[in-house]
Amino acid sequence: MSTIETFAPVGNWAADPVHSNVSFEVGYAGVNTFRGGFKAFTASLTGDTLEGSAQVASVDVKDEQLNGHLQTPDFFDAQRFPEITFTATELTREGQTVRGKGELTIKGVTKPIELTGTIADAPSTDPFGRERLGLRLESSVDRTEYGVSWNAPNQSGGNYLADDVKLIAELALVRQEG
Amino acid sequence: MKVLAVSGSLRADSHNTRLLEEAAAAAPSGVEVELFDPAQIAELPLYDQDLEGDAPVSVERLREAWGEADAILFATPEYNGSVPGGLKNAIDWASRPKLEAALTNQTVAVVGASTGQFGAIWAQNDLRRILGIAGARVVGEGLPVARAQEGFSEQLQPQLHEVLQLLVEAAQPVEDGVAA
């Protein structure tokens, strides 16, 4: 007989923004991987439900010009769609392995997504007496389904940017008082 | 709603300026199409970051006109397979400073006329790409008008009407991240 494990310890858990990361990886030039992330985001976990959001204006890559371009209608359109939102329900775990389903909204388009990841066995207590839990989630999405379709042809064929993007949330969750 | 019509051709008898005059005549009701004087593109200095701090009056005038319009319709000729240098220079001025520029989030569409059989389609494709990178909201796929020296066809006005309709719809203000 199998037992269903409780996903997270009782209580409300919120991401510590300094020690958490929300990032993306996308193939480019057909042979490399490009990484970026969002500096401003929130995430909270209660039971088997995780809710999160990221501010488009905080998009962060290693090039200021590209940070600007990513905020324009060519990409995320920060003026009209300032927030990316995410809800995961039905998160389940087997030991440290996590699976789940969620909904992701980018540029006003909401699509279901599948999640995989890992979660810490049990919370730890930090030097300041706060209980902490580690949760990492990944999903792959086709960015063009959300209207993030910019591309350029490679001289050697194919497109410069891949359509499939891996989204990664590495969350340092802290149990909230009360 | 005011659509500013910017021709990339400076000559007095320009096919592209005439194309924009056709657009003005084809405007949907409630849409005013105002022709931007091509002389204002001709008088701009070449883009130079050293001039940014104390931008010349011609640049200020350009930024004000392009920034205050509700939307912009560009008509481009094709010089050596791409956008005329003067128009590119104006876009470079109007795209700075990044994210606070006249073109940032400005809703734009592109049409173009040429005397050849392809209707400046390469220039239009380049212009749409350039405007997107400059931060604009680029609407539609362009409208190639070929053999412009032979006069415009009867189908042109309905096509321009449709381009303007799409442009003004996309330029509607939004609330709470959702298009009205």
Describe this entry's structure for a reader.
- The complex is a heterodimer of chains A (about 180) and B (about 180).
- With about 180 residues, chain A is mainly β.
- Chain A has one domain: Lipid/polyisoprenoid-binding, YceI-like (Lipocalin).
- Helices cover about 5% and strands about 55% of the residues of chain A.
- Chain A has one helix and twelve strands, in the order E-E-E-E-E-E-H-E-E-E-E-E-E.
- In chain A, strands 1-4-5-7-8-9-11-12 form an eight-stranded antiparallel beta barrel.
- In chain A, strand 10 and strand 11 form a beta hairpin.
- Chain A is elongated, with a radius of gyration of 17 Å.
- The N and C termini of chain A lie far apart (about 35 Å).
- The mean pLDDT of chain A is about 95.
- By secondary structure, chain B is of the alpha/beta class.
- Chain B has one domain: Flavodoxin domain (Rossmann fold, 3-Layer(aba) Sandwich), CATH 3.40.50.
- Chain B contains six helices and eight strands, in the order E-H-E-H-H-E-H-E-H-E-E-H-E-E.
- In chain B, the strands form two sheets. In chain B, strands 1, 2, 3, 4, 5 and 6 form a six-stranded parallel beta sheet that branches. Chain B has a two-stranded antiparallel ribbon with strand order 7-8.
- The radius of gyration of chain B is 15 Å and the shape is globular.
- The model of chain B has no long low-confidence stretch (mean pLDDT about 95).
- Classes of the chains: A mainly beta (about 180), B alpha/beta (about 180).
- The interface between A and B is medium-sized, with 16 and 14 residues.
